[in-house]
Design a protein that fits this description.
By secondary structure, the chain is an alpha+beta fold. The chain is built from 25 helices and 28 strands. Among the domains are: 178 residues, Alpha-Beta Complex (Phosphoribosyl-aminoimidazole Synthetase, Chain A, domain 2); 174 residues, Phosphoribosyl-aminoimidazole Synthetase, Chain A, domain 2. The strands form five sheets. It has a seven-stranded mixed β-sheet with strand order 8-10-7-11-9-12-13. The chain has a seven-stranded mixed β-sheet with strand order 23-25-22-26-24-27-28, sandwiched between helices. It is globular and about 85 Å long. The relative contact order is 0.13.
């Protein structure tokens, strides 16, 4: 034992996050005690964050292929064919724990990491999205966390030159001690220029590029695989520090190198840093790898091999080059003023060997260690069903309807998030057709083309808590609807599974149920899972978050100009309701915000109806018959119409809702859309709906500056808009001294 390399013990292994059984398994594999460096490497490789040890058995049940899928889960991101030799490459990942500890850098490096996952496969990133969950607005930390996270996302995304075009933001006390920051990136690449991470070629050089390595982020993957406690603030050193300007240079340098024939394999250094990238690349190729760390670029003095291998410093990549192409690559990275160092070679030994200062600090087999990563079939119990609501809940309270609607559109979940998205550059590169607040999905043109991708992120955690199976299916169906509502053909999803401690059967049951629901919906909608991320142990002092299986959906449009937004555009348009309304109020926003209850079963999800109605809406949009389109979700029918009216500044006469009860007005039945069509097209749409077996009802017409038609009260659109847009700026301003 040296001063630099303490002796590996069970106590130390436990500090690193390994169980006694896992440590014993490591001893058997090695046939000896690991070195300190080897113990650190094994601990991060076997962490929940890197090994998926609690979730792997269930993730394998998801549908991951289809004629459109070029590459599914297992690589840095998913790859989907969009025709004409083009592909979209996308993924969503969490940066939850770091963002709670240090919100600005946690969120910023979350954006940086997901960008690297996408461009490491050869794609130019064209859009960022995010899905954010914060605690109660009354909690003393919430305002600080919102400010830091939003600033971090904007600060990184704006500087790197990729538009942030949409997302979602919710508030609930369950996230008080553990917020969620899920970041998504979409990129485009040619189908014949996709790069993978499997190493090949004994003797090929291993090259390190990008930023210098520091001590930030050491054991970040381990920290992300544990519950929070009262001392979580002390984990601040495990949070990485990002530099978006370096990331921009790295994107351009990597894409320039990818235009040559020099690269054999490439991988970003994300969770577990150089450890994960080197072990995964060599392991996928069935090879060994020898690293000599003396020449590795470092920004701090005296770093040990343990620190170097586990650092999660940002903006770094590992590349396997073809022999003789080193100087071509070096010239490109010199041009972009980035570090470039040859730090090793591929070997036929199958071992990970790490040398520094003339000593060997690690020499262990890759395949046995990787293959022996724990896989647990955790005990789980299903979530008991919620009892049905009493019929009397459908009776409207004795208060003006305008007051109810105003309260709904101004509640924290439903209030305008303009304060957030105005801090993001959503228009950089000039290809954004629709962004936050304008449509159910963001729509971004492919550079230099007319066709576009549509992107959405969706999940309703309160549904998932009440019924994880139904909630998981609904999250996928909602993504499907949002893409269809702009006219896009849904192609595939990425998932971000955010849950509490999987060692608790109740929590593990939430995860299992959500996976079952997601799988069922993806199969029914031909909407496969091509990438994703699992974030477990989202708990503080034993209190878990709401189960939050966030879904990122991507679709394709032949022409960006075909897409439609939510805003009413003209006076006199006919307003149509697509889908059947039964008035389901269980787990609804109305129930929570107006009646102060969070109970009942979430709305049923009929996937056959979802597909039928979505296919119908998409086709009539593409045929030019729809002026405005909005799917019905939180708040139900009346909130949906109000959002369309607020977006367009045009009111509506809703004669078709005369006499409606709370269930009709605010129920959250699924598979429904509100459309505005020109009056001369209304009959055609209704005829086509009848032929397709799709229920369509006339609600009324667009006109004036208020919602009218149900009783004597006119509800001013201006009043609703002011309430809708006032809450978040007012809330954030209240924290400024």
């Amino acid at each position: 034992m040296t001063a630099q390399q303490p002796e590996a013990t069970l106590e130390l292994a436990r500090e690193f996050g390994l169980s006694a059984e896992e440590y014993e398994n490591a001893l058997k594999i090695l046939g000896r005690k690991p070195t300190f460096t080897e113990l650190g490497i094994i601990s991060v490789m076997w962490s929940e964050h890197c090994s998926y040890k609690s979730s792997k058995v269930w993730l394998t049940t998801l549908p991951t292929d289809g004629p459109q899928v070029i590459c599914g889960p297992g690589e840095n991101a998913g790859v989907v064919d969009i025709g004409d030799g083009d592909t979209v490459i996308f993924k969503m990942e969490s940066h939850n724990h770091p963002s709670y500890i240090e919100p600005y850098q946690g969120a910023a490096t979350g954006v940086g990491g997901i960008l690297r996952d996408v461009f490491t496969m050869g794609a130019r990133p064209i859009a960022n999205m995010n899905a954010l969950r914060f605690g109660s607005p009354d909690h003393p930390k919430t305002r600080h966390l919102v400010s830091g996270v939003v600033s971090g996302i904007g600060g990184y995304g704006n500087c790197v030159g990729v538009p942030t075009v949409g997302g979602e933001t919710n508030f609930h006390p369950a996230y008080n001690g553990n917020i969620l920051v899920n970041a998504m990136t979409v990129g485009v690449a040619k189908a014949d220029k996709i790069f993978y991470s499997a190493a090949a070629g004994v003797g090929n050089p291993v090259v390190y590029v990008g930023s210098k390595t520091g001590r930030d982020g050491i054991h970040g993957a381990t920290m992300a695989s544990a519950e929070f406690t009262e001392d979580s603030e002390e984990k601040r050193p495990t949070v990485q520090v990002g530099d978006p300007f370096t990331e921009k240079l790295l994107i351009e340098a990597c894409l320039e190198l990818m235009a040559t024939d020099a690269i054999v394999a490439i991988q970003d250094m994300g969770a577990a840093g150089l450890t994960s990238s080197s072990v995964e690349m060599a392991g996928k190729g069935g090879l060994g790898i020898e690293l000599v760390l003396d020449n590795l670029p470092m920004r701090e003095e005296g770093m040990t091999p343990y620190e170097i291998m586990l650092s999660e410093s940002q903006e770094r990549m590992l590349i396997i080059l073809k022999p003789g192409r080193e100087e071509v690559a070096r010239a490109i990275f010199d041009k972009w003023e980035l570090d470039f160092a040859i730090i090793g070679t591929l070997t036929e030994t199958g071992n990970l060997v790490i040398k520094m200062h003339g000593e060997t600090w690690c020499d262990m087999p890759i395949a046995p260690v990787s293959n022996a990563a724990p896989v647990y079939e955790r005990p789980w119990e299903p979530t008991p069903p919620q009892p049905a609501l009493e019929d009397s809940v459908r009776e409207l309270p004795a208060q003006p309807l305008g007051d109810i609607l105003e309260k709904l559109v101004s509640c924290p979940d439903q209030a305008s998030k303009r304060w957030i998205w105005e801090q993001y550059d959503s228009l950089v590169n000039g290809d954004t057709r629709f962004m936050s607040g304008q449509a159910d999905a963001a729509v971004v043109r492919l550079p230099g083309q007319t066709k576009a991708v549509a992107i959405t992120t969706d999940c309703t955690p309160r549904y998932c808590l009440a019924d994880p199976v139904r909630g998981g299916a609904q999250a996928v169906a909602e993504a499907w609807r949002n893409l269809s509502a702009v006219g896009a053909l849904p192609l595939a999803i990425t998932d971000n599974m955010n849950f509490g401690n999987p060692e608790k059967p109740r929590i593990m049951g939430q995860f299992v149920g959500a996976i079952q629901g997601i799988g069922e919906a993806c199969r029914a909608l031909d909407f496969p899972v091509v990438s994703g991320n699992v974030s477990l142990y989202n708990e503080t002092n034993g209190e878990a978050i709401l189960p939050t299986p966030a879904i990122g959906g991507v679709g394709i449009m032949p022409d960006a100009m075909m897409a439609v937004g939510i805003a009413f555009k003209n006076e006199g348009d006919t307003i149509l309701l697509v889908g059947e309304t039964k008035g389901h109020l269980g787990q609804s926003l109305y129930l929570r915000e107006i009646l102060g209850r969070e109970d009942g079963p979430p709305p049923p999800v009929d996937l056959t109806v979802e597909r039928r109605n979505g296919d119908f809406v998409r086709q009539i949009i593409r045929d030019g018959l729809v002026v405005s389109s909005h799917d019905i979700q939180d708040g139900g029918l009346l909130v949906t119409v109000a959002e369309m009216a607020m977006a367009g500044g045009i009111g509506a006469n809703l004669a078709g809702l005369d006499g409606a009860d709370a269930g009709i007005l605010f129920g959250e039945d699924q598979a429904r859309y509100v459309l505005a069509v020109r009056p001369e097209n209304a009959a055609t749409v209704q005829e086509r709906a009848k032929a397709a077996g799709v229920p369509v009802t006339v609600l009324g017409k667009t006109n004036g500056t208020a919602l009218t038609g149900r009783g004597p009260e006119a509800i001013s659109i201006d009043r609703l808009r002011k309430a809708n847009e006032a809450w978040l700026p007012g809330y954030m301003a209240a924290g400024v001294e």
